[in-house]
TrEMBL record:
Binding partners and assembly: Homooligomer.
Keywords on record: Cytoplasmic vesicle, Endoplasmic reticulum, Golgi apparatus, Membrane, Sugar transport, Transmembrane, Transmembrane helix, Transport
Main location: Golgi
PANTHER family named in the record: SOLUTE CARRIER FAMILY 35
Functional description taken from the UniProt entry: Involved in the import of GDP-mannose from the cytoplasm into the Golgi lumen.
Taxonomic source organism: Rhypophila decipiens
Compositionally biased intervals (Low complexity): 11-20
UniProt signal peptide: none
Protein name, entry field: GDP-mannose transporter
Bias type Basic and acidic residues, positions: 1-10
Length: 415
């Protein structure tokens, strides 16, 4: 469940990374942010490192822990805030990333892509069961627990992916509530819509976060980037319209009105989470993994108090064995996304991360289209191409902008 991501958020936890997460996790200039080791007392950071931490990277998916494979490439290229906020996944690099190795990097990118695609379709299959469709909070709680367990494991000295730090419940509570909405609403969207619509709709994370950044921080995008987002939004609108039309063919899967509503609410929740988490990086001086390490258990305990009043439970003894296997697989995919994202952040550049994000988006949309039973001549296919074409064009513009900024910075240093 848990992310994009954004971009990647991926139908469940994938929607926080991708908002998480995460699908892609660099600053607004798509630069890797070096962090000195953070001691358990919070010291050991130089003023130079603080300056780096203040730089904001640009969803999806949103997306570390598989929150939403969902449009991680959009997250990674978007946000710039004049007051120096840091994004949700910009600083999830550990103090000492492993040495770069092409084979290892490629392997982890493949694992991340397969896990992101797997979590979307696994969650869709789980939510297709009427007895589990309305147990969303329970499912989210399970994923939060899996995420915490994964982060706890990789923080142990044996692995030392990051140094855990603690924050008070009072400090982390608002962000944990936002995190829960960021996961639950996209999951509900996936439960009541097709995979194609769900994934294409996550493209709206990019313009929504851009709009929020402009309203809150007066942060602007290059003119060409804004122009590229117009067809992206138009394409999502076309898919929303045609995919929700009733079909006389029972084999063709369609999106319900509830699916569209939950998708839009999920976009707002994921975008707000993406923007809001930046202030928590500055306030608590934590990396994304450290923040998530604190958020996940709090979110899980919060949901435990609400689950009895909201969820409709199935008769657990009547749940087929294959559904239990899928639930375990979903948790496993979330863990793989968490771990692989660490290597992707540490070892790949902005172009590689962007390509991986687009590959995940296109793969999920293509497989979703095939499983929906729609033909190639269906009119919503045009909206898919327009939306994806727009977000790819946006990514290219932002990468070129980053290159220009790098050249300008180099010339200033020579002076």
């Amino acid at each position: 469940m848990v992310g994009d991501n954004s971009r990647d958020r991926a139908g469940s936890f994938a929607s926080s990374a991708e908002t998480a997460a995460a699908e892609d996790h660099h600053n607004n200039n798509n630069e890797k942010i070096p962090l000195t080791p953070i001691t358990r007392t919070g010291k050991g950071r130089s003023s130079e490192d603080d300056d780096d931490l203040e730089k904001l990277r640009s969803p999806d998916e949103l997306d570390i822990d598989g929150y939403d494979n969902e449009n991680e490439e959009a997250d990674s290229l978007l946000r710039r805030e004049p007051d120096g906020a840091v994004s949700a996944v910009a600083t999830s690099q550990p103090a000492a990333p492993p040495p770069s190795n092409f084979t290892t990097s490629l392997l982890w990118m493949v694992i991340n892509t397969l896990a992101t695609v797997g979590i979307v379709f696994t969650n869709k299959a789980i939510f297709s069961d009427p007895s589990l469709k309305l147990a969303q909070l329970t499912f989210a709680c399970f994923h939060f627990f899996i995420t915490y367990l994964t982060l706890y494991t990789i923080s142990l000295p044996r692995f030392a992916f990051f140094v855990p730090r603690r924050a008070s419940i009072r400090d982390i509570l608002p962000l944990s509530i936002a995190m829960s909405l960021n996961v639950i609403l996209p999951n509900l969207s996936l439960a009541f819509s097709t995979v194609t619509f769900y994934q294409v709709a996550r493209i709206l994370l990019t313009p929504t976060v851009a709009l929020m950044n402009y309203m809150l921080y007066s942060s602007t995008l290059p003119k060409n980037a804004i122009l590229a987002l117009i067809p992206a939004c138009f394409g999502v609108g076309m898919v929303s319209y045609y995919d929700s039309l009733p079909s006389s063919d029972a084999n063709i899967k369609t999106t319900t009105s509830l699916g569209v509503i939950f998708a839009l609410l999920g976009i707002l929740a994921s975008s707000l989470y993406t923007v809001w988490i930046a202030s928590y990086h500055r306030k608590l001086q934590m990396s994304s993994m450290q923040l998530l390490f604190n958020q996940a258990p709090v979110s899980a305990f919060l949901l435990l108090y609400i689950i009895p009043f909201v969820d409709t439970f199935p008769v657990w003894t009547e749940v087929p064995v294959n559904r239990w296997v899928m639930i375990m697989m979903s948790g496993g995919f979330a863990s793989l996304i968490n771990i692989s994202q660490f290597y992707i952040i540490a070892q790949t550049g902005p172009v590689s991360s962007t390509v991986v994000g687009h590959v995940k988006t296109c793969t999920i949309v293509a497989l979703g289209w095939i499983s929906s039973g729609r033909g190639v001549g269906d009119r919503s296919v045009l909206g898919v191409f327009v939306a994806i074409g727009g977000i790819v064009a946006y990514s290219i513009v932002m990468l070129k902008e980053k290159a220009k900024q790098a050249v300008a910075a180099a010339s200033q240093e020579r002076r």
